[in-house]
């Protein structure tokens, strides 16, 4: 289970009563919706409260500023990420006896996840670089354990030495490529290449399969 980040009391006012908890949930839900339409830096608090159906003053009863939302959004992202990893067994390609097809299914699933949550991931990616304190303490170790579990997907027969390290390396490459391609398509380097996203996914899958083959004992 992902633990909660300790939020500075000067930034987030924890609700004690049910109406306050409901207001906080509505603010977070509205922010998540708006992030799929606009970038975080473009959102105004009035946009968030309008979508939530409340006055701006209600926002400031829960959060001292818009940036105070970020740790709470990161907690929500951790929950979304865990639900996504739990759903991966439902991806048909990941049950293929062919490792290349399993890798292709994993790459495609990662890109689809980034598209489904593009606005949220972009906001957290940019802002966590500027302020690492928004990241829950347990996120790093929890994420590392999840990445290592992909070793079972890549190497079912135990033919690869140090397969956890290989799985983590592959996830770093896949996630970094998805970030550049999905989050920042209009910025360099994505803006300067003519290859389609489908072609990138296909070529990335081939490259990851080659990495696996080169690591076989």
List keywords for this structure.
mainly alpha, Tetracycline Repressor, domain 2, 217 residues
Brief summary of the model shown:
The chain has 217 residues and is mainly alpha-helical.
Describe the protein.
63% of the residues lie in helices and 0% in strands. The chain has a domain at 69-215: Orthogonal Bundle (Tetracycline Repressor, domain 2), CATH 1.10.357.10. The chain is elongated, with a radius of gyration of 20 Å. It has helices at residues 18-35, 45-52, 56-60, 69-87, 99-116, 118-130, 139-154, 163-183, 197-215. The protein has 217 residues and is an all-alpha fold.
**Class of the domain at 69-215, according to the CATH hierarchy?**
Mainly Alpha
Elements, N to C (H/E) = HHHHHHHHH
CATH superfamily of the domain at 69-215: Tetracycline Repressor, domain 2
* Overall SS class: mainly alpha
Q: How many DSSP-defined strands?
A: 0
- Strand percentage: under 5%
Name the overall outline.
elongated
Report Rg: 20 Å
């Amino acid at each position: 289970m992902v633990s909660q980040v300790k939020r500075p009391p000067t930034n987030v006012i924890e609700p004690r009563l049910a109406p306050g908890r409901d207001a906080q949930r509505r603010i977070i839900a509205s922010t998540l919706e708006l992030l799929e339409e606009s970038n975080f830096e473009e959102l105004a608090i009035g946009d968030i409260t309008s979508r939530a159906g409340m006055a701006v003053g209600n926002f400031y009863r829960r959060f001292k500023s818009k940036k105070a939302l970020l740790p709470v959004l990161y907690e929500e992202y951790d929950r979304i990420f865990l639900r996504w990893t739990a759903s991966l067994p439902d991806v048909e390609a990941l049950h293929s006896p062919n490792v290349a097809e399993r890798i292709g299914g994993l790459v495609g699933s990662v890109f689809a996840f980034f598209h489904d949550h593009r606005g949220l991931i972009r906001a957290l990616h940019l802002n966590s670089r500027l302020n690492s304190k928004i990241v829950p303490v347990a996120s790093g170790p929890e994420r590392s354990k999840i990445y290592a579990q992909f070793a079972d997907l890549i190497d079912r027969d135990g033919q690869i030495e140090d397969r956890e390290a290989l799985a983590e390396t592959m996830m770093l490459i896949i996630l970094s490529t998805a970030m550049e391609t999905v989050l920042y398509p209009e910025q360099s380097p994505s803006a300067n290449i003519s290859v389609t996203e489908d072609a990138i996914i296909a070529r990335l899958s081939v490259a990851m399969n080659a990495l696996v083959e080169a690591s076989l004992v």
